[in-house]
Predict the structure.
Amino acid sequence: MKRFLNLLCWTLCCGTGLAGVALAAEPAPKVVDFSADVMRPVKIADSSALSLVGHVVFYHNGAVITCDSAIRFNDRMMDCYNNVIINKDSTFIYGDRAEYNGNFNTARVFSPLIKIVDKDATLYTYNFSFNTLDNIGHYTGGGTMLQKENRLESRDGYYYADNRELIGVHDVEMKNPDYQLKSDSVSYNLDSEIARFYTRSYIWNKDDEFLTALKGSYDRKADLYTFTDQSYILTKTREVWADTILYKQNVQDALLVNNVQVADDEQQAVAFGDLIQYWGKERKALLTRDPVVASFQESDSSKRDTLYMRADSMFVFTYNRDSLLRDSLRRDSLAALESAASDEFTPADGGGTTAGTASQSPEGEPQPVAPAETPMSPEDVEAAEKAVTEEEVAEPVLSEKEQKRLAAEKRREAKELERKAKDEQRRAKEKARQERLLLRESRRKGARVGAEADSAARADSLAHAQLLQAQRDSLAKLAQQEADTLLPAPADSVEGEQDSLVRKMFAYHNVRIFRDDFQAVCDSMTGFSLDSTLHMYVDPVLWNDNNQVTSKVVDIYTLNQKIDRAVFTGEPIMSQEVDTSHYNQIKGKVIESFFRDGAIYRTDVNGNGQTYYFMVEEDSTGNYISGFMTVECADISFYFKDQAVDEIVWRGKPVYSIYPMDKIPDSQPLTLPCFVWEGKRRPSKEQVFNRIFRPSERNEYDKLPRPEFPITQKINLAREQLVKENVWFDRNDPLSSEALEFIRSIGY
């Protein structure tokens, strides 16, 4: 009854009726509904106002404002004092004073500290305004928000209550257990926990990785970073640049799109492309859309050689060597091989391989499958792996001739393994023999026989163990090559297992390689870290200065990231350009070159050696070709000094002919069968590498200060001090029962 009389009093004074209250249910009322324990008119300057005291309630646009007292200037404007609460839906705003303008639907809140609460989120700030129609709040002078484990502070900001979106502007810093962020503009959704930024932003994640971009987002629930403008990632060993980066931190999955550069400090390599996809758990990578890899090699302290490689697509797989050896297929292969092997290895007849599964026919050999020029999902990659590892292929990829060539190559590799095993056996026997000689010598000098005999026994045991280990290692490698399967590394591998990691790389179509002193082309290439080998297939050609080598297959063996040996099989021909129409040529069954510190020092031509050589002399007019020599023999050895031939040795009853240039018979060809000078295919540096190296930004970003949250520190200090001084309270009041009763009484 008291509230009814107060309302009646106000009706008589201001000439309004209860009919106006009934209209308050319209969607956007102009009049602010109100209630109070005591109401009386007051004169302010030349105008009249209404003083409201006790349980004051205002209602407008669905928002409720409560306070201890207020001055109502008209039906749309009022000032609120003491214990002010503004509530709209789940949003509560706490202050000491508020000014409400119903014409603009805006409430300005004043307090030493203003507190805003929306469910599990709390915001503290110094200055705050709230639009009751748009449900948008705006704070200035600094604010800090805490929601669950998320903290965000900024100098200014906007809060969108309808979708629970907080936008921090200027000096934004943010953190949670997963990352820390610095930016000048960040949008954070309290429900989805998605943070979006629209200016240069800096992020440090829980793995101590640094990320930055001009525009992007982080979805914490999905564990997904999405960067779309000038994106960059810095780790302990890598730097990554791209226009667009999609990155899942926990599983280390990444998709890099356009202008990609990945610099690996450990591997001393840089990868480029317009699409690179990496699957962290499987340790697989796909490089496509014009990929290029640059590998840095320190030839000496004063020179840094760079090798560039380009292909249409590149695959890189990493797996655990121990897991491979434990695989059932390999166990079966090893068992078969070991049952066929005796205490020492026996060469196969006719250049064949060892007994057992190593003699498998090429028809059952798995063939690589070229990737599509589109991003691949993990399922796509798994399907590609399955295709690679299938024991039987429905439709062979290679021709019958190529399959025969690969079978011969396997036999050659098997023989090479046998040779290495025999070398290990000889070394072990020699060591044991030396130990026995020492033992005999010590016996002659009167040493203790028992101790020395024991030493001899240990030496014999060691030699036997070394021999057995050499056999096992060779068998394991042979089984590895024979099985040729692609198996993903276990997801639970740890850093301590890095030595067991094996990498396998495929380069498909239009492979081109360039180094200042070396160039090469082929259609496809495979690389294995297990034995540090590169295998080049389908019309490979290699060049050095004015020298060229062609063959069906090229195998390059490296040691300590330097070339150690190169083997050319399948009609190999080494040639040298004398002039544009004359070429020195060497041919054999197999050509093998040996290197020391990256420089060639010997080349062996094994079987059916043939040499076509143009003799060059010098006179007053310059160099001229004086004669032509042909040599046929069994084997040839070339010895090099300072990158030039110093000595040639022909073995096996060499037969030679020498002709003056004007006496060469018409029946004598000047080129060997299958010789073709491939100068037009020789790649230039520009044809292989047309990217621009981005300089390292590691030093710049390593010095960048991380978030320190100065605004939060200042506000927390103020909270403690104001409470201590009894001038402010950290309130969390609900709406009073009087306020709830009033808004129900007017139809809400």
In short: Residues 517-677 form a domain with the lipopolysaccharide transport protein A fold fold (CATH 2.60.450.10). Residues 194 and 219 are 4 Å apart (CA to CA).
